C-alpha cells in the first residue's frame, strides 16, 4: 500500500531540517512558512499546498520533488492511477510528481492539470532554473514577465523560471501538460 503523500512529505521535511541543523523557528524564517504550519506538516497533520512546498524548497535551496523522492530502481514505470497529486489552495491546479529530482541530471518531471477557468500564480524559482512545458491537452496561457503566451496542444515552451509566472486556463476544458524543471 502506498504511503499517504503528506506523511511522506512531513517525514522528508523533518529529515532535511535536522540534516541542515535547523530549528522550526529558523526554517520558518528562511521559508516564510509559519512555525506552526511546518510543525503540522512534519507530524503529517497538514497537507501542504503547491505554493507552500515551493516556498520551503526555495528557502532550503532544494528541488520541489525532494519531498517525494523514492529509491531509484534501474527501470521505473509510473502509473498515473497510483500517483497522489499535490493540490493548490482551491484544488484546481494539480501536480503529479512523475520523476523526482535527480542530482546527476539536475531535472525533475511532472504532469500538471489545470481545471477550466482556473489559474496558478507560481513563485519565482532560484536563479537560472528553467522550465520546459509540453501541452498534451488543451491550450495553456502562460504569463512570463507580464507577457502572455498561448501554447496549444502538442506545442511546447521553455523559459527561465526565476521570475513570477502564471499558468492560466481560460477555456472550458481541462489542460494537461508535462513539465521538466532543470536546476543548473
Mean pLDDT: 90
- What is the straight-line distance between the termini? 35 Å
SSE topology string: HHHHEEEEEEEEEE
Q: Could you give the order of strands across the largest sheet?
A: 1-2-3-10-5-8
Overall body shape: globular
- Radius of gyration, CA atoms, in whole angstroms: 16 Å
- The CATH class of the largest domain turns out to be Mainly Beta
The CATH superfamily title of the largest domain: Jelly Rolls
> Segments where pLDDT lies below 50 for 5+ residues?
none
CATH architecture of the largest domain: Sandwich
User: Helicity level, as a percent range?
Assistant: 10-25%
In DSSP terms (H or I, runs of 4 or more residues), the helix count works out at 4
Tell how many strands the DSSP assignment holds: 10
Look up the CATH topology of the largest domain. Answer: Jelly Rolls
Number of domains: 2
Structural class: alpha+beta
* Main sheet attributes: strand count, strand direction, barrel closure: 6 strands, antiparallel
Strand content: 25-35%
Kindly describe this structure.
This protein has 184 residues and is an alpha+beta fold. The chain folds into 2 domains: 64 residues, lambda repressor-like DNA-binding domains (434 Repressor (Amino-terminal Domain), Orthogonal Bundle); 103 residues, Jelly Rolls. Helices cover 23% and strands 33% of the residues. The chain has 4 helices and 10 strands, in the order ααααββββββββββ. Strands 1-2-3-10-5-8 form a 6-stranded antiparallel sheet, with no helix packed on it. It has a 4-stranded antiparallel sheet with strand order 4-9-6-7, with no helix packed on it. Strand 1 and strand 2 form a beta hairpin. Helix 1 crosses helix 3 and helix 2 packs across helix 3.
Amino acid at each position: 500500500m502506498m504511503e499517504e503523500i503528506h506523511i511522506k512529505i512531513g517525514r522528508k521535511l523533518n529529515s532535511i531540517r535536522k540534516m541542515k541543523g535547523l530549528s522550526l523557528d529558523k526554517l520558518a524564517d528562511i521559508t516564510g512558512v509559519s512555525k506552526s504550519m511546518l510543525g503540522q506538516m512534519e507530524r503529517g497533520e497538514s497537507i501542504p499546498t503547491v505554493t507552500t512546498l515551493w516556498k520551503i524548497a526555495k528557502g532550503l535551496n532544494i528541488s520541489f520533488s525532494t519531498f517525494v523522492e523514492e529509491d531509484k530502481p534501474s527501470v521505473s514505470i509510473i502509473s498515473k492511477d497510483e500517483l497522489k497529486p499535490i493540490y493548490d489552495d482551491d484544488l484546481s491546479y494539480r501536480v503529479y510528481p512523475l520523476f523526482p529530482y535527480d542530482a546527476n541530471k539536475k531535472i525533475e518531471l511532472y504532469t500538471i492539470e489545470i481545471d477550466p477557468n482556473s489559474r496558478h500564480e507560481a513563485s519565482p524559482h532560484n536563479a537560472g532554473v528553467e522550465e520546459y512545458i509540453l501541452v498534451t491537452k488543451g491550450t495553456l496561457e502562460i504569463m512570463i514577465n507580464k507577457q502572455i503566451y498561448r501554447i496549444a496542444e502538442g506545442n511546447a515552451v521553455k523559459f527561465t523560471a526565476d521570475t513570477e509566472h502564471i499558468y492560466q486556463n481560460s477555456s472550458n476544458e481541462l489542460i494537461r501538460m508535462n513539465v521538466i524543471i532543470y536546476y543548473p
